[in-house]
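Encode chain A's predicted structure.
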Amino acid sequence: MDRITIFDTTLRDGEQSPGASMNVDEKLLLAKQLEKLGVDVIEAGFPIASEGDFAGVKLVSDKIRGCQVAGLARASRTDIDRAWQALKGGADPRIHTFIATSQIHMQHKLQMEPNAVLEQAVAAVRYARTLTSNIEFSAEDATRSDIDFLVKIFTAVIEAGARTINIPDTVGYTVPREYFSLIKSIRERLPNGGDGIVISVHCHNDLGLATANSIAAIQAGARQVECTINGIGERAGNSSLEELVMALRTRPDNLAYETGIVTTQIYPASRLVSQVTGIRVQPNKAIVGANAFAHEAGIHQDGVLKNKATYEIMTPESIGLPQNSLVMGKHSGRHAFQEKINDLGYELEAQQIETAFIAFKKLADKKKEVFDEDIDALIADEIIRIPNYFKLNFVSVKSGTVAMPSATLEVEVEGESRHGAEFGDGAVDAVFKTIKQLTNTGSRLLTYEVKSITGGADALGEVTVRIREEGLTVMGQGAHTCVVVASAKAYMNALNKLEYKKRNRPQVTV
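Encoded structure for chain A:
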């Protein structure tokens, strides 16, 4: 079976989802899970975009040793130098440089003639080749580009030193049959039929065809697929890693290709990405959605009870879906807790484990049983966080059928303790107004979502908010047995993310 290289760009393209930006610690946490998952290449970010992105790429590159780490760079010496400074400490660093090749991009975005684009691409690859032999070149918006120009620029950059060429469907425009023909034609027209060159694809999901297009490209000769966990990314997202990998694994009779992915780590990776970014996985999402292995129709239930294969083409265990074999409660000790978080796919430092364990014991005193989802929420709340510019110390609300809802809070603003109270249309509204008054922020609430993580009257509630200020949009999460407290924690989490983004604004628009 031919082996397909899995190039994961969750930390770069996935991070470009609105509100999904990550700090350096979050990137490293995810990178460790991606390494455990068995991806071949981690694209850790766009180093020249900001100081924070540079630091994230450098940290991942310095720490990850089980796979290649790539950094994105425009076709310019400045970008390439910055990328190399972040990557050079890696085990096998890759410079991924790109330039747009479609007429609409060259004319309106670059304002360059095709020959100038060709010259810039070749110069960039030739310069990158002086730093490393691991170079990938991408022709942005390839599926709307002239094929003769694509062949010309790919031939030139290969001669300049590129060993991987990426033919991306940047705007999710193509369809499988068309993409198959494009990949096949380019491969056949490359020098020596493309021998010694890895053809890569990067598909977006604007028409819902990203995974189908990626599979068509593999059948046409592509041997690297660029994808993300949960399919997150710009606009409608990217080709979903879990969909692609499980399609190949489930249908070897039709798709005789293999990957190095440890499929039992798919579900932990999906859950961790959701926790870090705040982007929920839709229930009917293929492979990792809550309904992917759920059966409600009587006919389906009857069939599954008789033989799971009647309605399940893969097992939940094959993707690492937990079975809750280890029951956690107030009597559970540190060892059991550490085993549980290891089973859930987290790799935490000793101090992080201790912090999470203390929070776990507090929750266990309130609940009869602590579920995996509860622990996910605790880790998201206690560990996966950015610097606490704003910290919630105390919240108290008054509400009812007669009294006007009010909230009293104590918060710390960069170490300074502040107290205040506000009235609102409801308890949550009063809390949010008080937070804005105490933190002196002008954020606007876009969405507010609350859900019970587990069943029962003692269920842990999780709140997700989406706020916007100064053109920046972020998501925040908070979990607590009291929904009002969870709401306050979610808003504070969002404000911290917003402040972090303000202080680390990108130097360029990605």
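The CA atoms of residues 37 and 265 lie 5 Å apart.
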